């Protein structure tokens, strides 16, 4: 039962990664450029998340 569940979860994650690569057209980039793009994207998303939290606490005060 556990192995089957792991396979289902793994297939879902693989499908989401595949869609991300296709939608962002990352399949056309070299691996090192893809790494830079993903790093910048994660950094911007992380900073936006932190700013949203700080803005929330500023509004609560």
TrEMBL record:
<dbReference type="GO" id="GO:0017059">
    <property type="term" value="C:serine palmitoyltransferase complex"/>
</dbReference>
<dbReference type="InterPro" id="IPR024512">
    <property type="entry name" value="Ser_palmitoyltrfase_ssu-like"/>
</dbReference>
<keyword id="KW-0472">Membrane</keyword>
<protein>
    <submittedName>
        <fullName>Uncharacterized protein</fullName>
    </submittedName>
</protein>
<keyword id="KW-1133">Transmembrane helix</keyword>
<dbReference type="GO" id="GO:0005789">
    <property type="term" value="C:endoplasmic reticulum membrane"/>
</dbReference>
<keyword id="KW-0443">Lipid metabolism</keyword>
<comment type="similarity">
    <text>Belongs to the SPTSS family. SPTSSA subfamily.</text>
</comment>
<dbReference type="Pfam" id="PF11779">
    <property type="entry name" value="SPT_ssu-like"/>
</dbReference>
<dbReference type="InterPro" id="IPR051900">
    <property type="entry name" value="SPT_small_subunit"/>
</dbReference>
<dbReference type="GO" id="GO:0004758">
    <property type="term" value="F:serine C-palmitoyltransferase activity"/>
</dbReference>
<comment type="pathway">
    <text>Sphingolipid metabolism.</text>
</comment>
<keyword id="KW-0746">Sphingolipid metabolism</keyword>
<keyword id="KW-0812">Transmembrane</keyword>
<keyword id="KW-0256">Endoplasmic reticulum</keyword>
<dbReference type="GO" id="GO:0046513">
    <property type="term" value="P:ceramide biosynthetic process"/>
</dbReference>
<feature type="transmembrane region" description="Helical">
    <location>
        <begin position="36"/>
        <end position="57"/>
    </location>
</feature>
<comment type="pathway">
    <text>Lipid metabolism; sphingolipid metabolism.</text>
</comment>
